[in-house]
C-alpha cells in the first residue's frame, strides 16, 4: 500500500474525467500516463495491473494509478461494468516527481493518528492523502460531487478553474473517508465500541422507514442512552444522520434516473411525498425538481 500526499493550498490541475460503461466484455488497454488517475468502481469486478502488482476492484473500491508506470487490464470484465475516472496533476510540477510525494501506509497512518489524537488538522489541512486502493468508498457522497463535476464539463463556465476546485473537493472527500475508515478500524481493534456496527446497520437499512426506536431495538439499548451516545460521537442526532443518507441517495436518483419525485420519496422510505419535498427544501435550500434541473447534463463515456 502506498499513499499520495499532495499539497492542496492551491487547487489540483484538472485534466479529464468521465463515467465509463462497457457495452460488451471489456479489458483496459495497456498504457503509460504522465499524470495521476483515480478509478472508482461502480459495477462488476475490474481487473487492473500496474507494473507487476494486480488489483481486482469490487464495486465501491478505488484505485490510484501513478504517472510513468505501465498499467493495463489483466482479465476481461463483464458487459455493464461501470466506473468513474478522472485524471489530474498538481500546479507545482515538482510534486509529481518528488519521491516524498509517495509515502508508505505506516507514514500515512502515523499522520492520521496525530489527526485523531492531537487535533493535528492545523498542520495537515494543506494536504490530501490518497491511498493506492480504498475499499467501501461512500458512493452516495462521491456521486454527488462527480455529477457536479460532469455538469461543469458540459457547461460553458467562464473559467476552467471551476473543474479544478471541484475536483480538489472530491479529493478532500476521498481523504476524509480514508481518515474515517482508518479511525474506525483503529477503534475496532482497540475497543468493543459498537458505533461502526450501528453506522453500517443504519446505512444498509437507510432506504427503509427506520428510526431511533428501530436501532435501539436492534442493538438492545434504551432510546435515551442511544440518542445521547450517537449525538456525542457523531455530532448530530441519529434522525439527522438518517435524513442525510436518504437525501444523498435522493440526489443520486434525481441525477441518474427518470423516477418521479413521488417514486423517489417512496424508494427512500417516505410515506408522505410532501414531507419529503419539505425536508429536501429545508436541508438543501432547493426543491428536488430544481436540483434535477441544475444537474441534468452529464458527460458519459461508453467507449
TrEMBL record:
Q: Which keywords accompany this UniProt record?
A: DNA-binding, Transcription, Transcription regulation
Family matches, as InterPro entries: Homeodomain-like_sf, HTH-like, HTH_AraC, HTH_AraC-typ_CS, Tscrpt_reg_AraC-type_HTH
Write out the GO MF terms: DNA-binding transcription factor activity; sequence-specific DNA binding
Q: Which Gene3D superfamilies match?
A: Homeodomain-like (1.10.10.60)
**The organism sits in which domain of life?**
Bacteria
The record's annotation in SUPFAM superfamilies points to: Homeodomain-like (SSF46689), Regulatory protein AraC (SSF51215)
Q: Which Pfam families match?
A: HTH_18 (PF12833)
Presence of the UniProt keyword Repeat in the record: no
- Domain (HTH araC/xylS-type) spans 196-294
Name of the protein in its database record: AraC-type DNA-binding protein
Recorded source organism is Anaerocolumna jejuensis DSM 15929
